[in-house]
Amino acid sequence: MKLESNGILIGLRPFNERDAIARVFSRGYGVLVGVMRGAVVAKKNRPLLGQVGQMSWNARLDSQLGTFHWEADKNLAAPLMMSHARLAAMNAAFELLNTLLPEREAYDALYDKTLWLMGALGDDVNGAYLEWETDLLRELGYALDLSHCSGCGKTNDLHFLSPRTGRAVCVDCAAPYVNRLYKLPLSIGITLRFIEGVCAQQGVAVPVMRQMLNMVEYYSYLFLALFVKFAMVSTFNKEGENHDLDNFDTGTGYRAVYVWWHDVKA
Ligand SMILES: [Zn+2]
């Protein structure tokens, strides 16, 4: 079987010394998984997360891990590299797509929205990310409805959201249950609760990058950078491995913080 389309490179991890296992979110076929030969050692045209390009995916059998041929048109992640918050938002979005979307099922509206997100991560990172994540939830069958009160139908004074139905509740209707409702406006803290629900239903863990996104919201870049470095040193040195700590990608840094935090809590 051979599939050809354009797509976004949303996952890449080394498979052996030369090759990587890649995940491409494609138009028409959704998430495809396969081997990218030579991706680890490529000197030029090296596949990178956030690239948009042309892919062809080959598998001799339906059940086989496919092989990609990848030709990048441009790297949408490049303009995001200078901003920690923008990069964190992109990584969180990619990890959610990797974790929650089934393979080889088309999600073209979400594909377009993801392309949009990477261009829209400007000054209002949270606003753009929130819009994308609300769309993701809708695509997965958890639409949030903030247009009118689920109790009486009115469209003003909508200050609460029901965790159970994902629908808005006006001040009057909310009065008896205020403690059980989320307070609007919508935030990435609230959508995280719904993401947790989806993950629980699918039996998967909430991606670390998504959990960390709420942290990025609260701490400044400088503080976070120092903190990530500290957590990386304490986590990896304890494991007795000799890592080059200056050459870590953001994801590894976040995972280190996560491991460190779990150690501290335990
Ligand atoms: Zn009402």
Tell me what you see in this structure.
- This protein has 266 residues and is of the alpha+beta class.
- Among the domains are: 2-75, Nucleic acid-binding proteins (OB fold (Dihydrolipoamide Acetyltransferase, E2P), Beta Barrel), CATH 2.40.50; 219-265, no CATH class.
- Helices cover 41% and strands 20% of the residues.
- It has 8 helices and 8 strands.
- It has helices spanning 84-100, 108-120, 125-139, 171-174, 188-202, 208-218, 221-238, 250-265; strands at 2-14, 20-26, 30-36, 51-58, 66-75, 158-161, 168-170, 182-183.
- The strands form 2 sheets. It has a 5-stranded mixed beta barrel.
- A hairpin with a 3-residue loop joins strand 2 and strand 3 (30-36).
- It is globular and about 60 Å long.
- The N and C termini lie far apart (48 Å).
- Bound molecules: zinc ion.
Describe the protein's topology.
Blueprint: E1 2-14, E2 20-26, E3 30-36, E4 51-58, E5 66-75, H1 84-100, H2 108-120, H3 125-139, E6 158-161, E7 168-170, H4 171-174, E8 182-183, H5 188-202, H6 208-218, H7 221-238, H8 250-265
Parallel strand pairs: 3-5
Antiparallel strand pairs: 1-2, 1-4, 2-3, 4-5, 6-7, 6-8
The structure holds zinc ion (ZN).
The site of zinc ion (ZN) has 7 residues, from helix 4.
Number of strands: 8
- Low-pLDDT ranges: none
How large is the count of helical segments? 8
Largest beta sheet: what is the strand line-up? 1-2-3-5-4
| Radius of gyration over C-alpha positions, nearest whole angstrom | 20 Å
Approximately how much beta-strand content do the residues carry? Answer: 15-25%
CATH class of the domain at 2-75: Mainly Beta
Largest pleated sheet: 5 strands, mixed, barrel
